[in-house]
Amino acid sequence: MINTALKISAASLLAFAINTVNAGNSTTTIGSTLTLNTPIKIAPNKADAYFQYGKRVSEAKVDEYYPNCNIEISSLSSDTQTLNSDTFTITRVIEDEVYPFSGETAQAHETIISLSSSKQPDVLKLTCSQWGNEISDGDGFVTKSDIKEALGTKFSLN
């Protein structure tokens, strides 16, 4: 009986971790929305666009130690692609830790937000991350306010 209760509790905690974005006193959950307020261009032969400090940046200019986000689409094209203004439904949220280099204590803390829109089904997800050390930086995951700061006014996270 106790073993069954522990399994149910562990499953409930895992479901909460997968479906919420750490946001201090509030959370962003499945069914919430991410709105693209103004169209953005995806460069030829790329499938994503990066944002940090409220501005669009190239992947090479991202400072991984501070909150940054990238929106990803499913297809590559030799032409520039445009993501039009739209509201995307959040269908899944996963927080993950990645150790970029073997033996390093720095971790990449990623929050992966799966997105859905009937108007733009090629839009897959928004990944927000930062590198940090779990011991000195709390849990290290980006918060809802970090995500909003990284995306700036191009997006609204509700």
Features:
12 strands; 158 residues; alpha+beta; two-stranded antiparallel ribbon; 8-stranded antiparallel β-sheet
In words, what does this structure look like?
The chain has helices at about 1-20, 145-150; strands at about 20, 30, 35, 40, 50, 55, 70-75, 80-85, 85-100, 105-115, 125-130, 155. It is globular. The protein has one domain. Helix content is about 15%, strand content about 40%. Strand 9 (about 85-100) and strand 10 (about 105-115) form a beta hairpin. The strands form three sheets. Strands 6-5-7-11-10-9-3-12 form an eight-stranded antiparallel beta sheet, with helices on both faces. Strands 1-2 form a two-stranded antiparallel sheet. A two-stranded antiparallel ribbon has the order 4-8. It has two helices and twelve strands. Residues about 1-25 have low confidence and may be disordered. About 25% of the residues are buried. The chain starts with a helix and ends with a strand. With about 160 residues, it is an alpha+beta fold.
